[in-house]
């Protein structure tokens, strides 16, 4: 149910951001190592948006690939199961890919006539 509470939070943040205006789209960045199942998150987002009569809002997701800093000094982008391409080591720190963030929220332009 981690994805459900996350979806609720995303919608809340989006609504707080746009105030009275209409949201058109929400852009998310999801870390490949965040453990978030995008399919479930999307499902819950759609449910929550529908409940709030916001089912016209589109949600887009970009995956943040995992990037590591190796003990040998190199940084690299790789999958969790592969070591450093330079020295083969798994002694590394994660630089990116753990977070899930709202990248931007698209709001309908209201004509000021
Ligand atoms: Zn290395």
Which descriptors would you attach to this protein?
113 residues; binds zinc ion; single chain; elongated; 6 strands; alpha+beta; hypothetical protein PF0899 fold
Summarize the helix and strand pattern as letters. HEHEEEEE
Name of the top-level CATH class of the domain at 2-66 and 96-107: Alpha Beta
Sheet having the most strands: 3 strands, mixed
Shape: elongated
Radius of gyration: 18 Å
**Ligand roster:** zinc ion
What is the average per-residue confidence, as pLDDT, rounded to a whole number? 91
> What class, by secondary structure content?
alpha+beta
What's the CATH topology label of the domain at 2-66 and 96-107? hypothetical protein PF0899 fold
Q: What is the total tally of β strands? A: 6
* Amino-to-carboxy terminus distance: 45 Å
> What portion of residues is helical?
25-40%
Q: Strand order within the widest sheet?
A: 2-1-6
Strand content: 25-35%
Specify the number of helices.
2
CATH architecture of the domain at 2-66 and 96-107: 2-Layer Sandwich
- Low-confidence region ranges: none
Strand and helix layout:
Layout (H helix, E strand, L loop, with lengths): L1 H17 L4 E9 L6 H14 L6 E7 L2 E4 L4 E3 L14 E5 L3 E8 L6
Parallel strand pairs: 1-2
Antiparallel strand pairs: 1-6, 3-4, 3-5
Helix pairs in contact: 1-2
The chain binds zinc ion.
Characterization of the model:
The chain has two helices and six strands. With 113 residues, it is of the alpha+beta class. The chain has a three-stranded mixed beta sheet with strand order 2-1-6, covered by helices on one side. Strands 4-3-5 form a three-stranded antiparallel beta sheet, with no helix packed on it. Helix 1 packs across helix 2. The protein binds zinc ion (ZN). Zinc ion (ZN) binds next to loops.
């Amino acid at each position: 149910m981690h994805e459900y509470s996350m979806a609720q939070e995303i919608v809340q943040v989006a609504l707080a951001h746009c105030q009275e205006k209409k949201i058109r789209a929400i852009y998310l960045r999801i870390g490949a190592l965040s453990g978030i199942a995008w399919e479930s998150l999307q499902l819950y987002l759609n449910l929550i948006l529908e409940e709030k009569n916001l089912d016209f809002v589109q949600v887009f997701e970009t995956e943040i690939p995992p990037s590591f800093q190796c003990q040998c000094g190199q940084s690299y982008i790789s999958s969790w199961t592969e070591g450093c391409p330079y020295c083969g080591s798994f002694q590394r720190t994660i630089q990116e890919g753990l977070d899930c963030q709202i990248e931007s929220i698209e709001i309908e332009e209201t004509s000021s006539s």
